[in-house]
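Why run this: before we spend reagent on co-expression, it is cheaper to look at a predicted model of the complex and decide which construct boundaries make sense. The entries below are exactly what would go into the expression plan.
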Amino acid sequence: MAIRDQVTISDIAERANVSISTVSRVLRGTARVSDPKRKAVLAAVEELNYQPNVFARGLASGQSMAIGVLTQNFGSPFYDAISQGVIRGLENTGYSPLFADGQWQPEMERRSVETLMQRQIDGLIITGGLMPSSVLHRYAEEVPLLIVARRVPGLEERCLCLDNFRAAHEATMHLIELGHHRIVYIGGIGSHDDAVERRNGYLHALDQAGIEPDESLIVEGDFRRQAGLLAVDNLMRNGVVFTAIFAANDQMAFGARMALFRRGIRVPEDISLIGFDDEPAAAFMIPPLTTVRQPAVELGLAASKGILDLIQGKPLEPFSLKMKLIVRESVALLR
Amino acid sequence: MAIRDQVTISDIAERANVSISTVSRVLRGTARVSDPKRKAVLAAVEELNYQPNVFARGLASGQSMAIGVLTQNFGSPFYDAISQGVIRGLENTGYSPLFADGQWQPEMERRSVETLMQRQIDGLIITGGLMPSSVLHRYAEEVPLLIVARRVPGLEERCLCLDNFRAAHEATMHLIELGHHRIVYIGGIGSHDDAVERRNGYLHALDQAGIEPDESLIVEGDFRRQAGLLAVDNLMRNGVVFTAIFAANDQMAFGARMALFRRGIRVPEDISLIGFDDEPAAAFMIPPLTTVRQPAVELGLAASKGILDLIQGKPLEPFSLKMKLIVRESVALLR
DNA sequence: CTGTTAGCGCATTCAT
DNA sequence: ATGAATGCGCTAACAG
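The model came back. Tokens follow.
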């Protein structure tokens, strides 16, 4: 045991001339305690700087007062913003978040969740990720579970996510209205539901506009920068003609931007580019990246509220957040 | 207690026909156990899918097997990269990291550390931050402590940081060699040791080159984007003349870049710009931001190794990582 | 080598 | 309203 934390409940019991149960009672507020005794306890707590031992408390109560949060890639602005929201949402609730990083690798995600589980988390928030939905279903049975920014079939009521279809649709429409016909779509992983929805939104917009979808304009990515870069490189190398790009997330849009830059192609003068997520860095690109805003912090906040509800057995409040297209200077009218 | 995790050590003891202590022994490897019994235990563990209860273990052993990590701003690429390093460094060590976010606010940092402490962390890694050094000294007495990316007087042997002075000196020299005389320095918070060192490096380079430092070129920032933006705006408004900017971190360089962009000033054609930290996004600016590389992941790795050494009472290995200037395309010769 | 036992610090039930 | 007693699951002496 570390040197600190020597003061225990019995120390203050002694100091306050009461029994340890009384101390426990005033600390937890589980039963009424006479005023003088309560004050004595509180005073002793103060004087001795008592800090409850989380382990002992957890052992005895069966509650850890901890919420596990599986995030993807510390360093990814979007997921980090969600984490921020969770932190804020959990403040002063008595619960504290325990973070683990899945790194977008199913195996890593599993291990991370196992670790969290071992720490007896009272609830689990999973953001994004590639974990098979079967595994998620299993977790859902073991612990109050909330999934953020990902739609999992069969667990819809546990998922906090936005209308990807509509947002992608809007973004594509925006490009079409600017006069674009040949719009590249750089998608996410095919097995990922969000990616599918966004793609459908894209396709639906084309359809509405009477534009024949062109398979050669649709590229599968993996949500990472490199994928965006490669996508553009390949398109160019293959001589595919296009005037606009819609990427399923900002990271890939960054990559695409980079590839264009290397070839001396200007954005938005030569090609229009839209991303998705509104990562903070998007605003700092020169010129700023046009993107679909996913309110990540708000998502995190909602997630923390939601998980607390679940823990208390309350029904999940319906969730709705609107996404909107952030139009900056980087989308141009087609010349 | 959650529904899961019902299997306890005695369940498998029963199942394997041994005593609970034997089970504990094979699980912890604290003593030799006959082969048949060991195998029986392992088998039982497997069959029952036993998961040790961290709380019970912690209570009994006094060890939490957890390392607290106070980071600044989830979402700051630099600190996140450090976190990544810590995660990697702790893999397969039996220890797991517990993250908390200080958000660059002393009060928040304190609360976060208190929370970590309450969770009985075996060691504490603090990255950056603004916590008064007196507080840090106190923590150092309570728990094995390692400070990353910040130099704290009196705790030097506990600090993992780089040679800020030399790096700032080099960056400034680089600009001078390119022909710049009037170089703006956008600094960090004055009370922050790193900021002071970087500033001194800047001043020393000027001195060596025989350039008289000009107070009007030295701006105090706070490491955030907004500060860089404001700095440039103010300089411009006041009609200060300069041909290059050296910012004490990339975030502020981003801000400066933005301010320049808004005024139609090109980088590097019109003004040279150097940042500090080599945040990933720096490479994705158009053109990429020239910056001083701080190997953040390596810092995190070293930190995790270091904290484990401290916990085991081993002396801290001397640490050295060189920083180097990443010269990309955004520094121009003075026309 | 192995089983028995005594706590770790706290919540909680049971008496009072 | 309050104290005594029990146990959470596990580790670490302590006896064989």
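The longest strand of chain B covers residues 66-71. Residues 1, 8-10, 20-21, 23-24, 27-28, 30, 52-53, 55-62 of chain B lie near DNA strand D (CB under 10 Å from a C1'). Bring this page to Monday's planning discussion.
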